[in-house]
Amino acid sequence: MIINRIVNLAHRCFEDQDLKELLKNSGIAFILKIAGIVVGYCFTVIVTRHYGAEAWGVFSICLMFLQISGMFGRLGMDIALLRFTSEFMVSEDKYLIPQVFKKSLLLTLSVSSVLSFILFLFANYIAIKVFHNSILILPLKLVSIFVIPFVVLWITREVIRGLKKIAIYMLLQQLGVFALASVILVFSLMFLKINYPYLIPILSYGISIIIFAFFALFLCRKYLMAFSLYVKPVLKQISYKYILSVSLPLLFSSVLVFIMGWTDTFMIGVFKTTRDVGIYNVVLKLSTLISIVLFSINSIAAPKFAEFWGRKDLKGLAKVARQSARLIFWMSLPILLVFVFFSKQILLIFGKDFIVASSALVILSLGQFVNAIVGSVGYILMMTGKEKTMQNIIFGGTFINVVLNACLIPYYGINGAAIASAISLVFINIVPLFLVKKYYGFYTINII
């Protein structure tokens, strides 16, 4: 029945030009996203099978600190560069793109260098005083070395995205990085003998980051050299102050989203064990598969929402929003059913240690399903001038997430973390759903 529904929906979609465009343009993003997730899980399975849940827990904690350092090191420049590049590409100011990129790169290199040093310096304190685990000392010091290339890769690929090199942009994300990291990891297992196994996954990932950072810089330089044709007597300069005035507010939103995404992992590490962290991290990754269709469609739906809003076409906006939500629902439902009824069998792939998290997988999957079925409500608000409203909602969701994790994890472990994350995820989706109805007069949920 579900398959027939999807087929019939697809048939009707091709009779509608807006939804036809939506499906066509999201196809590449969807396929490459799937490939990236598969490669990421391959890396996870290799680590968990050969080194166990604790090794993956160590990797997850180190990845968390790498992302924290990278987030502040970027200063919001990734999103700002995407905006600047896209904006200048359709104007006579193409010659400003290399200028903005160089200044942004200089700013982020300066800040990320300081953050890298701080992480290295405080690795002992973090491992002993925060996580009460001396095993983390060397991995944290090692991961501090990768902060700078991590930041460089992140901001450089956003320039490439702004230049509409989507396939290359996707390669520079999870797909390419984890594919190369998996190759390095397998090579290490076959030919190298390291007495400290917790370092191998981190080293494999870090080397992959460095290689792709240089590759991204090479591509970016190649693409930006073409803008030398547009160089003319400099009519204006983009100041550091102006760049920061755009990027720093974007950093605030990134911080909130990050806090919400990593609070559960951090608190499990504090209140429980690295083994629990590793198990929960795998379950969390699995649950996000339910929203993969949403992520793919959002990459195309967001600019279409802005397009309809610019034309003041609320009927068109409502139509695309509902069609998107309907498509997302029917494509996400089968994944939810598989996770609910076969959670133990799926987790067994990662090892017997992970079966205990079957309830957590079901809880997180239900939260992600709500995220999927309400559709692109967050993007609708952000693309129609309600960015501050959405920021406040995210702040509220983050507060709920932190409080619930602190209350539930000490007593219920990974199940408590799953409950906290699911509730906060439902909050940041249901509130925008009703606000879209209040502001624009329609609900995005449209199953039939």
Automatic annotation (TrEMBL):
<feature type="transmembrane region" description="Helical">
    <location>
        <begin position="134"/>
        <end position="155"/>
    </location>
</feature>
<feature type="transmembrane region" description="Helical">
    <location>
        <begin position="240"/>
        <end position="262"/>
    </location>
</feature>
<keyword id="KW-0472">Membrane</keyword>
<dbReference type="InterPro" id="IPR002797">
    <property type="entry name" value="Polysacc_synth"/>
</dbReference>
<feature type="transmembrane region" description="Helical">
    <location>
        <begin position="58"/>
        <end position="84"/>
    </location>
</feature>
<feature type="transmembrane region" description="Helical">
    <location>
        <begin position="167"/>
        <end position="192"/>
    </location>
</feature>
<feature type="transmembrane region" description="Helical">
    <location>
        <begin position="327"/>
        <end position="348"/>
    </location>
</feature>
<feature type="transmembrane region" description="Helical">
    <location>
        <begin position="282"/>
        <end position="306"/>
    </location>
</feature>
<feature type="transmembrane region" description="Helical">
    <location>
        <begin position="30"/>
        <end position="52"/>
    </location>
</feature>
<keyword id="KW-0812">Transmembrane</keyword>
<dbReference type="InterPro" id="IPR050833">
    <property type="entry name" value="Poly_Biosynth_Transport"/>
</dbReference>
<keyword id="KW-1133">Transmembrane helix</keyword>
<protein>
    <submittedName>
        <fullName>Uncharacterized protein</fullName>
    </submittedName>
</protein>
<feature type="transmembrane region" description="Helical">
    <location>
        <begin position="105"/>
        <end position="128"/>
    </location>
</feature>
<dbReference type="Pfam" id="PF01943">
    <property type="entry name" value="Polysacc_synt"/>
</dbReference>
<dbReference type="GO" id="GO:0005886">
    <property type="term" value="C:plasma membrane"/>
</dbReference>
<feature type="transmembrane region" description="Helical">
    <location>
        <begin position="354"/>
        <end position="381"/>
    </location>
</feature>
<feature type="transmembrane region" description="Helical">
    <location>
        <begin position="418"/>
        <end position="436"/>
    </location>
</feature>
<feature type="transmembrane region" description="Helical">
    <location>
        <begin position="198"/>
        <end position="219"/>
    </location>
</feature>
<feature type="transmembrane region" description="Helical">
    <location>
        <begin position="393"/>
        <end position="412"/>
    </location>
</feature>
<keyword id="KW-1003">Cell membrane</keyword>
